[in-house]
Amino acid sequence: MVEFLLLKQTPFFWDGVTKSSRASWIYANGLTEFIVPTEYNSGHPPLWITLLALFWTIFEKALWSSRLLLLFVNIGVVWQLVLFCKSNFLKTVSVLAVLLVCLEPTFVAQTTNLNNDMLLLFFTLLGLNALIKSQQFIFALALSGLLFTNLRGIYVVVAIALIHVVYTRLKLIKNAKPIYLGYVFAFISFAIFCWFQYEKLGWFLISQNENYNAHRQSVGLKQWFVNSVVYAKCFLDYGRFIIAIFLVPLLVKYLKDKSNRSIKIDRIAIGFFVFAIVFFVGMVPFSNPFGDRYFMICYLLAVILLINLIAHYNLSKKPLLYATMVFMFISGHFWIYPATISQSWDSSLAYLNSYTIEDQMERYIDSAGIKPSTIGTRILLNARNYSEFKMLTEADRYADFNPATNAFILLSNIDNQTKDEELHEIMSKWELVKRYSQLGVFMELYKRP
């Protein structure tokens, strides 16, 4: 609620901008069409963008109504997270430990971001809770929601199916056979959608839009290694390395001690490893760049697992461990890498600083009488009709980034597309006109020498 009140006019950010553009197409067609044309379509199913268009239709096409939808989704996620912790925390764990789980930095950042990841997380937790409690109808709803929210929902469904098999074989849940109908219902409903999309567009799942199709290609051995390093980095980013430091020795001790086991710890550990392995196999071999937000369920399971192991062994320094985790999670929002290193900006609250410096820079550009059309940039300033529902005139539009023709260049570390050599060339040889920064996020205006 506090986030909604403070950020209700905060624009769509990064990948959220493309979601807004597709939702705008559905909205413009009066909710009569849900299969977005190939020129806009990345291949992701349309549940989130349809919900956005629906909220715009009920209320108005505005940032506050978009964030009202996000608020409802956030409430649903926290509700399911509390239920999950209630079912899987050891009896000796305080209920306040849920707050520690909710402080996970990428989770916090995503509660502020108008993208579909929180909706995906909602259905993931809903599915896990329904599986543990053998709730057939809710399980079918959760699996269907996963498939219709995001292509990564396919990986989540595969992971849940594997978890289901392991849980059943190890007797960690009841073997309620009617719940298997949930897979059938989800598969049939999604197959029908894919058939309709194929009939309309001539393709399904793998977009024929060249801007997105390039992200679905397999990679060679070298890129496999690079992707593996990036994958591991995601699990250690934004203060999460403290979880690994505390968790690994406790987990090794737990796995060696086969006489002192807990069903709840086993369930969480299995869930974590299955999700981590499925995501690795499903993403690392391909060219699609991935960010920290993709693996939120793994981070949350890791925190819950660590809390359970601390309670299981009744560690004497429990308050110190918890305090350190809180400190590291909060510090994660201040992690800023050098401009030459790509960063998952939507995975910590650091990205919110970009709006302040953007406003300062544009006020300077206006006061200095510099025309935006003379400034080349890769910052998504020309997408404001989708990011903040602001129609731009030609005089307000910035030029495409091209150092060979631009009189000015506008750089920011919030942009991951500018290559290292381009950054070095501009920063070392062009004249710095103005620079604004806030907590490590910067924006710089350069003039051709």
UniProtKB/TrEMBL annotation:
Subcellular location per the Swiss-Prot or TrEMBL entry: Cell membrane
InterPro entries, per the entry: LipidA_mod_glycosyltrf_83, RgtA/B/C-like
GO biological process: lipopolysaccharide biosynthetic process
Record domain Glycosyltransferase RgtA/B/C/D-like: where: 44-192
Alphabetic keyword roster: Cell membrane, Glycosyltransferase, Membrane, Transferase, Transmembrane, Transmembrane helix
GO molecular function: pentosyltransferase activity
Residue stretches in coiled coil: none
Organism domain of life: Bacteria
Topological category with respect to the lipid bilayer: Multi-pass membrane protein
TM annotation in the entry: 66-83, 89-107, 138-167, 179-198, 238-256, 268-288, 294-313, 320-337
GO CC terms: plasma membrane
The protein, known as: Dolichyl-phosphate-mannose-protein mannosyltransferase
